[in-house]
Amino acid sequence: xxxxxxxxxxxxxxxxxxxxxxxxxxxxxxxxxxxxxxxxxxxxxxxxxxxxxxxxxxxxxxxxxxxxxxxxxxxxxxxxxxxxxxxxxxxxxxxxxxxxxxxxxxxxxxxxxxxxxxxxxxxxxxxxxxxxxxxxxxxxxx
Length: 142
Fold this sequence. Notes:
- The chain has a domain at 15-64 and 96-139: CATH 3.90.1180.10.
- Strands 5-2-1-6 form a four-stranded parallel beta sheet, covered by helices on one side.
- By secondary structure, the chain is of the alpha/beta class.
- It has helices at residues 25-37, 68-71, 89-95, 97-106, 113-119, and strands at residues 15-19, 53-57, 73-77, 84-88, 122-124, 138-139.
- A hairpin with a 6-residue loop joins strand 3 and strand 4 (84-88).
- Helix 1 (25-37) packs across helix 4 and helix 3 (89-95) crosses helix 4 (97-106).
- The chain is globular and about 55 Å long.
């Protein structure tokens, strides 16, 4: 029995819409990472991008468990001495809610060129509107 590998022309990519309001960030990020990698498909191959496109709406209404809203810190370093900057999750929820999803999902993907290609298929929007109606996205059942 031979193993068949999917060709780029035979991969059918779908668009999924995920409503993040009231969902826990980490648990939702696992499902998004699996959709981006294509692990829900029978043709899944780790070294080939077989994943789907994901649209996340209401990103600003995502939930963090415990006191992570104030306690979870994201560190940024410019490379100069003394220029470490720390921001908490509440800051990003107000200013840029897409960062929370990008940071969480990127950490669940492999560290290679393929993962950088996969993360581009994720679109995050703070409100309930998105401009991808032409792709006929299907709602993702959790």
